[in-house]
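Field guide to reading this record: the first block holds the primary sequence, the second block holds the structure written as discrete tokens, and the final block holds curator observations. Each block starts with its own label. This record concerns SDR family NAD(P)-dependent oxidoreductase, catalogued under organism Pedobacter chinensis.

BLOCK 1 — SEQUENCE
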Amino acid sequence: MEIENKKRKIALITGGSRGIGKSIALNAAERGIDVILTYNNNSDQANVVANTINNNGGKAVALQLDSSKTASFSNFTAQVSQVLAKEWNRDNFDYLVNNAGIAQRTLIKDTTEDIFDELVNTNFKGVFFLTQKLIPLISDGGQIINISSGLARFAFPGVAVYGALKAATEGLTRYFAKEYAERKIRVNSVAPGAIDTEFGGGKGDESHCNQIASMTALGRLGVADDVGAFVASLLSDDSRFVNAQRIEVSGGLFI
Ligand SMILES: NC(=O)c1ccc[n+]([C@@H]2O[C@H](COP(=O)([O-])OP(=O)(O)OC[C@H]3O[C@@H](n4cnc5c(N)ncnc54)[C@H](OP(=O)(O)O)[C@@H]3O)[C@@H](O)[C@H]2O)c1
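BLOCK 2 — STRUCTURE
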């Protein structure tokens, strides 16, 4: 057996300062992947993630990005190019994980246009245009993973726009896979179930958690590492024939 001295891969992970994105960044680094992670408000937490990776033999850089501000994406893309050249002596990266997102906590009757637009801009329009801008920097044969949600498959009250946008993101996943197949870029979506993070103000009270757990075949809520470890495992040639798929990481919710 010959062990190849492979070039280190680079993943760009949005929303890497906390929760699932942080776990994806740390798990990817543990697998030898270098990381560009983004944060919106929490630069301190993002720098802790980057420092943890850098202090443990990996390489990471944290950049600010508001994924609802499409007008900033050209500058952000230029910044990514500069960082790639300076830190890696490269002009491209290998994996894009569109993870950043915001939650909804309003019934349809209480959902204003402002709430609707913020959800669309952050969770859908931002994903589309950021990917459009960054895809010239993704190496041929690279991969994009869009973080979706179980709520794209089943409905709960209070998350109508959020769930519909995650379903739309799963649709985009297939369209990007189709149009970028000529560059052999694979595009998949990973749909977490209920995961214990700070998302939308946290996991809720005990009775809510018990209810979710009782609807889950594995009998518990997920933790960030349940998703982070899985996504990191996809960032590899081992998944080379998995394309345009939706993969749920929910412990078997509503089966
Ligand atoms: N937790 C769940 O139960 C669950 C279930 C299904 C799907 N998901 C999806 O998983 C993804 C991550 O969720 P999470 O649970 O890890 O959430 P989280 O703990 O609230 O973390 C959200 C991350 O997104 C970043 N972010 C928020 N708004 C942003 C914006 N406008 N622009 C750029 N970045 C922004 C945050 O950055 P700052 O820290 O800088 O604010 C943070 O890094 C989301 O797409 C979510 O829809 C979560």
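BLOCK 3 — OBSERVATIONS
The chain has one domain: 10-249.
DSSP finds seven helices and nine strands in the chain.
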